[in-house]
Structure prediction request, 194 residues.
Amino acid sequence: MVKTRSWRFDFDVKQRFMANSGLLLIQNEGSWAVSPLLSSHGFLPTRGSLMLDIVVCAMLFVMMILAVSIYLVRQKRLYFAHRTIQIGLASLLAIAIVGFEIDIRFFTDWRVAAEESPFYANGWVDRVLWIHLAFAIPTPFVWAFVLYGAVRNFNVAEPGEYSRFHRRWGWIASVFMLLTTVTGWGFYYLAFVA
Ligand code: HEM
Prediction:
């Protein structure tokens, strides 16, 4: 039986219980309740939370869709399909980012699970997280800039004077997304798999 002396200590015990039991505790008007919907253990055989597992898998899906979209516009000249896919992908990413931020800020203490990694104490988990954030933070802004510019300046989706500018920035946005994905996978591996 653990004796709790302070609220902070009490909170730490509950966080640890959360990470070890696979259940998520939520605080509701001062009392704690177990949420059966939000499991702190995801579906991958790792220490990642449900949301982290979803994001790790979703990024593979996002990169595949992005590759198809660029192939369609570059090789097949299917401009309208490219436009539709890119708008859909950006909307999906916006929802995923909001969900992910809510989870990481309010529900999942990822450090509890990452502490078990041999790369946590020597600082590599944090180092790779900083590298990841260097791409992950600017990427939504670059995407918003490219998307807004394309919707405003193309006549529906026909090539025109804006093409050169869009092609350059479209590639920059795509490379940012690729680097966000690869560094994100690196962080996930070091923190929750190793
Ligand atoms: C963030 C979202 C987007 C990204 C990352 C993106 C990326 C790209 C890339 C990399 C290319 C160049 C392919 C090549 O090398 O030929 C391209 C071409 C094109 N994109 Fe996008 N795109 C986005 C959104 C849009 C939207 C919303 C529209 C339409 C309103 C659009 C219309 C076009 C057109 C018309 C071209 C062909 C330009 C030309 O070769 O004349 N794109 N896009």
Summary: The chain is about 70% helix and 5% strand. The first helix runs from residue 7 to 21. The chain has two domains: 1-40, 43-193. Residues 115 and 122 are 11 Å apart (CA to CA).
